[in-house]
Design goal:
With about 625 residues, this protein is α+β, with helices and mostly antiparallel strands. Helices cover about 40% and strands about 20% of the residues. It contains 23 helices and 21 strands. A 6-stranded antiparallel β-sheet has the order 13-16-17-18-15-14. Helix 8 crosses helix 9 and helix 16 (about 395-405) runs antiparallel to helix 22. It is globular, with a radius of gyration of 27 Å.
Amino acid sequence: MAHRFRFEHDDLVYIDGVAYHLIDNTANSVCFVDADGSANSEICYTHAELQEVMTAERLQHVRRGRSQGKAVVRSIAGERKLSDFSPKAVSKALWRQKWCEALDWRYEAGRLVKTEASIRPFLQEMACEVNSFEEAQQIHGTQAQAGKLLTFRKSPCPKSLMWWHRTYIEAERDPVALVLQSHKSGNWNTKSCPISRTLLLGCIQGFLDLQRPSKKKIVSRTRRAFERENKKRLETGEPELWVPSRSTIYRELERLSPFVVCCAREGVAKAKRKFALFEAGVDVQYPLERVEIDEWKVDLRSLAVNSGIWKNLSKQEQAAFPRTRRWLYVAIDCATRCIVGMRVASEPSHDEAIRVIEMITRDKSDFAKAVGAKFSWDQYGGLECVASDNGASYASDAFEAAVSDVAGWAIRPLAGLPHLRGVIERVFGRFASDLMPLLPGRTFSSSQERGDYDAEASAVLTDDMLTAIFVHYVVDVYHQTEHEGLDGDTPANRWRTLSSRYGVTPPPTPHVRRSAFGERLERTLRGNGVRVAGLYYSCPELRGAFLNAPDRTVAVRVDVMDIGAVSVLIGDTWYVAKSFLNGLDGIRISLNLSRICSVPLTWYFAEKENGNGKRTQRRIQA
C-alpha cells in the first residue's frame, strides 16, 4: 500500500530542482503549483507515483520553507544545519535555546512579561534550571562524587535574553538562528503618549490575520500610518506624534499572546494542537506528530554475546561468560501507539538514542522479515516533536542537533513529572508484565518477588536472540492487540486509519539522513574522489575541489544502511557522491567504520536480495 505523505501549504517541495508548494492533498492524489506562480505549472501525483518520485531521490521536502521563520534562518546560517557548525558554536546555541525555553515556560504561565524589570527577579531561578541541564550533560549519567569540578556559563542579562528570544520566535524556534548573535543596545524606555499608543496598538492588530502578513510588512504599515497622522496634525497646527522605531514595533508584536497569534494566523484547530495542555493529556491528531523516546533496563539476565560467537565457545568458556542486563531503547508514536524505533544496547548513550531516531525515518519491514514475523513493520516518516526525559542520552548537543537536522523539535519536559511522557512509560510496564514472564533469566522487580529463582543460572538468551524476541513481540503481538488507549483499536490499524486520513510527514531524503545520522569521517581528496571502506565515490564537485581547493581533506558522512552513495562537504555545502560500482544502492555494511582511518581491511561482505528472493554475497577488496 502506498503511503500518503503530509504536506503543509507553507512547505516548499523541490521536484527535479523546481520549487513547488501544495495546492491540495486528497485521499487519491497530491497537487502542487510552481512556487514562482508561473501559468500552467500545476502538477499532480497519485500517492503511489509520489512515493516512486521520492524513492528515486527526485523530491526534496523543506518544511515551512515559505515561512518568514525559514527566511530568518536562511539569512543567518544559509543552508547549513546546526551540526555543520563547530561543537563550541552548537553548544552555545543550544545553551541559549534553553534560556529561551525557560523564559517561555514562565511567560506562558503568566509569571512574567517580556520586560527587563519583570525578567530580572527570575534570572537566578532560570539560571539554576539551565545549569541543571548543563550538569547532567557534564557528568554523563554517572554518579559524580562531591567536589567534581563543573563549569557553567555566565547568565545573560535580561536585554540579551529578550533579543535571543525574539530571534528564536521569528525563526519558528529553530536553534540555528541562535548561533550568531550580538548584543543590542539602545534606549528601551517608551516615548509614546496615549494617542501614539492607541494608534500603535491598532496597527499591531493587523498582524492577527489569516493572510499572515510578515512582521516587516506590519512595521512598514505602522510607520506609514504615523506619517499620515502627523501630516494631518501639521495641517491643523497640532504637535506631531512620536513615531515608534522598528525595534519598538517588533517588541509590541512579541508581546502578543502566542495562543492568540496562532488562532488568528493559523486557525483555532492548529492552535489547540500546538498549545495542548500536557496535564490533560497530549492532544495529537496524525501519525508522528509527537514521538516519545526513553530507555529501560530490561528485567532479564542475558548473555553478553551474539549466537554465532556463543556456539564456538567451549563449555568452560560459556560457563565463565558474563550474564548481564541490557538496555532497551524505544520510540513510540503518541497518536497511534505504534513503536516506530527500538534498539537493544549494552549501556545508555546518546549514540544509541540517535540510532533509534534514525529508525523512525526508515521502513523496518526487513527487520520484521528477518526474525520471521508475520506482519510488516512499515510505520515510518519524518519527525516533528520528539519528547524525552532529562537523561544523559538526550541531554546532549549531538542528540538535539540530529533531531534538528531532520526538521524535528526535541523537548524535555520537567523532571519528576513522568505523566508528561505517559505513553512511553506504559509501554515498558506492558513489556514487564506481558513479555518478561515468558523468558528465562527474569530478574523480577525486587528480591522478595524473585525468591529463590536463580536468574544468573537461567540466562540463555544472547543479544541477537533478545533483539529478535522484542521485534517479534512488537510487530506480531503488540501492534496487533487491542489497545485500551485507542478505544479498543489496534496500533497497526490506527496507523493505517490516521495515515490515510491525515497523511504522514515525508521522511528525510537519503542525503539529509546521511548528514544527520551518518558516520562522520575525514578523507583525502584523490583524482578518483574519496575512498571509504575500499570503495571510491565521486561527483563533479569533488573533481572540481581536487583541481582547485587548497584544503586536501573533506568531511564525509556514510550511511551504513546504504553504501551506494556518501555525502561530502565542499565549502559550506553538502553534495552526494556516488560509488563507481553499480548495484550498491540499498546494500548494508556491517563494519566498524572507526577502524577504516588507520587499519585497512582485507575484505568485507555486503549482502543484497536479488530478484528471486535469495540473498547473494559479494566480496569487495579493500
